[in-house]
Design brief:
By secondary structure, the chain is of the alpha/beta class. It has helices at residues 11-20, 39-47, 63-73, 86-90, 108-113, 138-146, 163-170, 189-201, and strands at 2-5, 24-28, 53-58, 77-80, 96-102, 118-123, 152-155, 174-177, 182-183, 186-187. Helices cover 32% and strands 20% of the residues. It has an eight-stranded parallel barrel with strand order 1-2-3-4-5-6-7-8, surrounded by four helices. A two-stranded antiparallel ribbon has the order 9-10. β6, α6 and β7 (152-155) form a beta-alpha-beta unit. α1 (11-20) runs parallel beside α8 (189-201). The structure holds ligand LARABZUK. This is N-(5'-phosphoribosyl)anthranilate isomerase.
């Protein structure tokens, strides 16, 4: 099961996450988030990452800004976390992760059709596009999420104490985690390391049922 650690704001945390084995490192380019990072700062951090895939998180951002940051920071993926449509996504100049919020806009049929490499399912909290620390109703969502024919990242309120349950219910391609890695809104080195230790200690169950694509292999690169 792959791990995306999101909301990195400093080089040390990003490097520790990479060294601990996180396959995806996320940077939030939505200015209203406390995890917002200036694109130039993110570009410096990205230039120091060797193995992890670099993901830029955007919320209804003008397309030209997104593509400018893709090239500035040499992003591997853009994560669309707002209400961006398919036409917008097709114009992004790198592979796309499309986020849906269970309880708001989640629709497995729409996810299957959306021009995205990976689908992320997050919790819905009105007025907060993401990074809420809330879980969605995993059991209620499980059957519908099973019908997604692409790699799926499960997000929302995941921590060392519940990631085993996420694996048991979904057997997802990966999990996305942010808030539980923080102390006083800053990433904690020990929490990053503890989360990766926990994930690596999980029994290797059956593989993800949806989206057995090239992303399910050991190399997550597009
Ligand atoms: O993290 C944010 O502040 C954020 C703001 C706006 C849109 C998306 C955002 N985060 C996207 C992520 O991929 C988070 O990791 C995901 O929502 C899970 O966060 P958490 O519940 O804190 O683990």
């Amino acid at each position: 099961m792959k791990v995306k650690m999101c909301g990195m704001k400093d080089l040390l945390s990003a490097k520790v996450a990479e060294e601990a084995g996180a396959e995806f490192i996320g940077f939030v380019f939505w200015q209203r988030s406390h995890r917002y990072i200036e694109p130039e700062h993110a570009a410096v951090i990205c230039s120091q990452l060797r193995q992890s895939l670099k993901v830029g998180v955007f919320v209804d951002e003008p397309l030209e800004n997104v593509n400018e940051i893709v090239h500035l920071a040499d992003l591997d993926f853009v994560q669309l976390h707002g209400h961006e449509n398919a036409e917008y996504a097709r114009k992004i100049e790198c592979p796309v992760i499309k986020a849906y919020r269970y309880g708001e806009n989640f629709d497995a049929a729409a996810a299957n059709k959306f021009p995205a490499e990976i689908i992320l399912v997050d919790a819905f909290r009105p007025g907060e596009p993401g990074g809420t620390g809330a879980c969605f109703d995993w059991r209620a969502a499980a059957e519908e999420i099973k019908s997604i024919r692409k790699p799926v990242l499960i997000a929302g309120g995941i921590h060392t104490g519940n990631v085993r349950e996420v694996q048991r219910i979904f057997h997802p391609y990966g999990v996305d985690v942010s808030g539980s890695l923080e102390v006083n809104r800053e990433k904690s080195i020990s929490k990053i390391q503890a989360f990766m230790r926990k994930v690596r200690s999980l029994p290797r169950g059956r593989r993800h049922y949806a989206g057995q694509s090239s992303h399910s292999g050991s190399d997550a690169r597009p």
